[in-house]
Amino acid sequence: MKREQSKKYSGLQKLRIISQAGFFALFLILFIKTHYGGEDYLTTTVEGFFHFDPLLALATTIGSRLFFVAFWLSIITLLFTLIFGRAICGWICPLGAVHQFFSFVFKKTRWLKPKKDDHLSLAPKYIILIIVLAASIFAVNLAGYLDPLSFLYRSFAVYFTPLLNMAFSQSAGLTYSLGFESLGQTFGQTLGNLALNSYFQHALAIGLLLMAAILLNAWKERFWCRYLCPAGALLGLFSRFNVFKLKIDPEKCINCHLCSIQCQTNARPYPAGEWKSSECIYCETCAAICPTAAITFPVRWQAEKIQGVNLSRRKILLTSLTTLLVAPIFKITLHRQRAYPALIRPPGALPEEKFLNKCIKCGECLKVCPTNGLQPALTEAGPEGIWTPVLVPRIGYCEYYCSLCSQVCPTGAITELTIEEKTTVKIGTAFVDKNRCLPYTLGRQCLVCEEHCPVSPKAIQTITVETLTPEGKVATNLAPFVNVNNCIGCGICENKCVVVDEPAIRVSSIGEARSEKNRLLLQVNEPGDPQQ
User: Fold this and answer.
1) Domain with CATH 3.30.70.20 in the chain
2) Who's near 117: CB < 8 A, 6+ residues apart?
3) Spatial separation of the C-alpha atoms in residues 1 and 293, rounded to whole Å
4) Cα–Cα distance between 288 and 118 in angstroms, integer?
5) Tens digit of each residue's pLDDT (9 = 90 or more) over 427-473
6) How far apart are CA 33 and CA 92, in angstroms?
């Protein structure tokens, strides 16, 4: 082989880096553009990336027992992997690009020192894949927690957008104080154009998980891709049949081990008999770095025996049985017996059980909410609902003429709604706490909640009340009360209430349109009564 062929693989390696940077930039641009920009309907979102993900397609299909039509694109990913191997992991995946970049940085800073022999098992990601798929049988959707696209988008949406919001806000304030008004206006205008949310609960925990995943690259290059990524494991099962097979010319090989030392995923290109096609992401590093150009990837259509990952039948069986025993525990929660008041789902959300089967905790709806009202849940939805979206009216309300959250959901957990349809969807009911409401307790006039109520006719109406004030006088004022038939639970009344610590009017999930059971009067069956 001539030296020029080694240059070919060096060129392919550079082309791969350009491809990674390009797809990551596309992901980032679509991420930034997924926000309210003054139009009722979004024209570009990052949602399409998720539809090419076969892990999400498989887990949500098994869990919900339905196939979401948009996931037909994941078939293209599988067919591509069958022919070209796990090239998607090395050339396209945006999270893979992040790990690739930091692995490069850690190498340059000498935090990461690749070793000649790495005998750490590559089986964990396959075990995680088995757990995810086995849990789906019990309609417990765990795919979103470690799926690369969900993990990356959720981390960016919940952790980085508040950081960027804070950075632009502080920069604008600082430049104004220093007298650079034009620069301050630029920062302020940029912040307004990006529509960055300012706060997310649990942002620290989600951000720390991303930081941990990145820092693990200082121990092993592309640690996530090697040991944790269930999507990569699924693609690895298909990639074993691809047509590009590694070949080492024994006459040129000088046994330097450079290819194995620098392999990004420990696919062990040397010796050739130990090469793991299911782990190779076709980064071309081994062929580009080989000093004698002994490594090539010729096309071989015939099947051949390839060294796989050591995953015994006993380990597969034990993992599957353990998951089948543990997964149902996720559904053992009080919320299935009696509705939880703070569990206010976005308009268009499916009934709770179906919603949990489909929601992948990606955070798209959280990012696009213009009032920052949608937040990642922790305990509101039980164990299986962690990081699913809930409306927290104290932080932000559900904008009356907005259906953006329903437009970006990649799995159909939130049914897409038009503006007209959304304005009629009831997601909860507001209740006045007369022990805290100013007209009822202090005899002071206040109708802020009634003024902000957006529905017509208004759900918050007024009555005349007489109140004994703390001074011993009787005050006559108009006081608010809620017409529960008109209220849609948008939460603007709770958000705007002047009682700052514990609002005098609060929204509960009760009465939500998606549930036949979560009604104002609970139907309790006596022993011996027929089931409803």
Assistant:
1) 346-415, 426-520
2) 260
3) 7
4) 21
5) 999 999 999 999 999 999 999 999 999 999 999 999 999 988 888 88
6) 20
In which residue are the tokens 């709604």 written? Answer: 417
Q: Has residue 531 got a pLDDT over 50?
A: no
CATH number given to 346-415 = 3.30.70.20
Let me know: does 256 contact 286? Beta carbons within 8 Å.
Answer: no
7: pLDDT strictly greater than 90:
no
Residue of 422, 363, 374 whose CA lies nearest to 396 = 374
- The answer to whether 206 touches 376, Cβ cutoff 8 Å, is yes
**Angle (deg, nearest 10), helices 230-239 and 148-155:** 150
SS3 content of the chain, % helix, strand, coil (to 5): 45, 10, 45
Q: Taking the alpha carbons of 75, 78, 211, 15 in that order, is the dihedral positive or negative?
A: negative
Q: Are 361 and 209 in contact (CB under 8 A)?
A: no
**Residue 480 — φ and ψ, nearest 5°?**
-85, 150
Nearest to 203 by CA among 156, 136, 269, 263: 156
The beta strand positions in 285-409, using DSSP E, are 295-296, 374-376, 389-391
Name the H helices within 178-312: 181-194, 203-215, 223, 230-239, 258-262, 285-289
Kindly state the average pLDDT of the residues 223-238. 94
Return the CATH number of the domain spanning residue range 426-520: 3.30.70.20
Question: From CA 361, how far away is CA 145, in angstroms rounded?
Answer: 7
The backbone torsions φ and ψ at residue 128, rounded to the nearest 5 degrees and listed phi first, read -60, -40
What is the spatial distance between Cα 408 and Cα 404, in angstroms, rounded to a whole number?
7
Over 85-137, what HEC string results? CCHHHHHCCHHHHHHHHHHHHHHHCCCCCCCCCCCCCCCHHHHHHHHHHHHHH
Q: Alpha helix locations (H) across 250-303?
A: 258-262, 285-289
Hey, how many other C-beta atoms are within 10 angstroms of the C-beta on 444?
Answer: 14
Task: Give the C-alpha separation, 233 to 238, whole Å.
Answer: 9
Cβ-contact 198, 166 below 8 angstroms: yes
AA identity, residue 427: I
What 8-state DSSP symbol labels residue 244?
A: B
What single letter denotes the amino acid at residue 397?
Y
